[in-house]
């Protein structure tokens, strides 16, 4: 029997997909916002489609600020976009 994959919702477009299909954005215990390519980093996670358009939508809606309950600087979004392009 196949193991059931957990579903997560993209904070950009709102679609639900399997966890492994989405990119995980992580708020580390010391408050840093980073791209988590492994999906197993320690801290609070938010999920995005692996698509630059979803990151733009999340930026416009301030979705990361809401998910992590803190203000997110534009430089953080720029850094995440670069990290997702390289992954």
Structural commentary:
With 87 residues, the chain is α+β, with helices and mostly antiparallel strands. The chain has a single domain (7-86), classed as 2-Layer Sandwich (Hypothetical Cytosolic Protein, Chain: A). Helices cover 33% and strands 25% of the residues. It is built from three helices and five strands. It has helices at 52-61, 63-68, 74-86; strands at residues 7-9, 16-18, 22-27, 33-36, 44-49. The radius of gyration is 12 Å and the shape is globular.
In CATH, the architecture is: 2-Layer Sandwich
**Structural class category:** alpha+beta
> What's the tally of helices?
3
What is the CATH topology classification name?
Hypothetical Cytosolic Protein, Chain: A
Order of strands side by side in the largest beta sheet?
4-3-5
Main sheet?
Answer: 3 strands, antiparallel
Instruction: Provide the helix percentage.
Output: 25-40%
* End-to-end C-alpha gap: 31 Å
How many beta-strand elements?
A: 5
CATH class: Alpha Beta
Q: Point out poorly predicted stretches.
A: none
Shape: globular
Mean pLDDT: 94
Order of helices and strands: EEEEEHHH
Radius of gyration, in Å, reads 12 Å
What is the number of domains?
1
Percentage of β-strand residues:
25-35%
> Which superfamily, in CATH terms, is the homologous superfamily?
YlxR-like
How do the helices and strands line up, and which of them pair or pack?
Layout (H helix, E strand, L loop, with lengths): L6 E3 L6 E3 L3 E6 L5 E4 L7 E6 L2 H10 L1 H6 L5 H13 L1
Antiparallel strand pairs: 1-2, 3-4, 3-5
Search tags:
alpha+beta, two-stranded antiparallel sheet, 87 residues
């Amino acid at each position: 029997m196949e193991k059931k994959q957990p579903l997560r919702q993209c904070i950009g477009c709102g679609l639900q997909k399997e966890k492994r299909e989405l990119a995980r954005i992580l708020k580390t215990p010391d408050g840093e916002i980073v791209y988590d390519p492994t999906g197993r980093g320690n801290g609070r996670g938010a999920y995005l489609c692996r698509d630059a358009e979803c990151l733009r939508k999340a930026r416009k809606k301030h979705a990361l600020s809401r998910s992590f309950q803190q203000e997110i600087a534009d430089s953080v979004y720029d850094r995440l976009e670069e990290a997702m392009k390289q992954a």
